[in-house]
């Protein structure tokens, strides 16, 4: 657990079966979590009220949920491999605004990406296989150049306005 711990760097760790949250960031702004492997946790990376995080080049496999952001703004989530997480690969919720997801590979999770009550999210150039994107009550989001294959539904919007979707491939 990291509480009120700004500018942390977590790099090059292997985390196995921590049971709850392998990494828990609470009010820990401007941190970087990169080049780590997470296996068998309840949640691999959990952020609450932590702004301007960089989560990149992590392997997040066989957890219940891969990444959760709650009330965490302006995060960058790039180049991660998020696979075989039973409930969700990536969950962005409760006013986690201004989050950017670029070039992540998201496969075989309960749901690939779920955005709830969060705005100004950019999803760009992500690859989803056997997963979908769902946005509930999210406004002004941009969803561009994502590849979604073999999903029960590609991109699902519920009670969301002013979202831009273009150049996505869904099959």
What is the global morphology? globular
Order of helices and strands: EEEEEEEEEEEEEEEEEEEEEEEE
| Sheet of most strands | 8 strands, parallel
Beta-strand segment tally: 24
Proportion of strand residues: over 45%
Distance between the termini: 40 Å
Structural class: mainly beta
The Rg value, from CA coordinates, equals 15 Å
Question: Which strand order do you get reading across the main beta sheet?
Answer: 1-4-7-10-13-16-19-22
Describe this structure in words.
The protein is built from no helices and 24 strands. By secondary structure, it is mostly beta strands. It is globular, with a radius of gyration of 15 Å. The model has no long low-confidence stretch (mean pLDDT 96).
What are the SSEs and their pairings?
Elements lengths: L1 E2 L5 E3 L2 E3 L4 E6 L5 E3 L2 E3 L3 E6 L5 E3 L2 E3 L3 E6 L5 E3 L2 E3 L4 E6 L6 E3 L2 E3 L5 E4 L5 E3 L2 E3 L3 E4 L5 E3 L2 E3 L5 E4 L5 E3 L2 E2 L1
Parallel strand pairs: 1-4, 2-5, 3-6, 4-7, 5-8, 6-9, 7-10, 8-11, 9-12, 10-13, 11-14, 12-15, 13-16, 14-17, 15-18, 16-19, 17-20, 18-21, 19-22, 20-23, 21-24
């Amino acid at each position: 657990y990291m509480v009120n711990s700004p500018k942390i760097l977590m790099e090059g760790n292997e985390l196995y079966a921590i049971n709850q949250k392998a990494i828990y960031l609470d009010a820990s702004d401007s941190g970087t979590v990169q080049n780590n492997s997470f296996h068998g946790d309840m949640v691999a990376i959990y952020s609450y009220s932590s702004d301007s995080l960089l989560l990149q080049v992590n392997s997040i496999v066989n957890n219940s949920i891969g990444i959760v952001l709650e009330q965490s703004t302006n995060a960058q989530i790039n180049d991660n491999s998020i696979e075989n997480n039973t409930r969700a690969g990536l969950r962005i919720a409760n006013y986690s605004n201004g989050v950017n997801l670029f070039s992540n590979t998201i496969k075989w999770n309960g749901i690939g990406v779920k955005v709830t009550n969060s705005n100004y999210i950019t999803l760009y150039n992500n690859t989803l296989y056997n997963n979908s994107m769902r946005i509930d009550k999210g406004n002004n989001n941009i969803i561009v150049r994502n590849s979604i294959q073999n999903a029960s539904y590609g991109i699902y919007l519920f009670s969301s306005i002013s979202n831009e979707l273009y150049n996505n491939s869904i099959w």
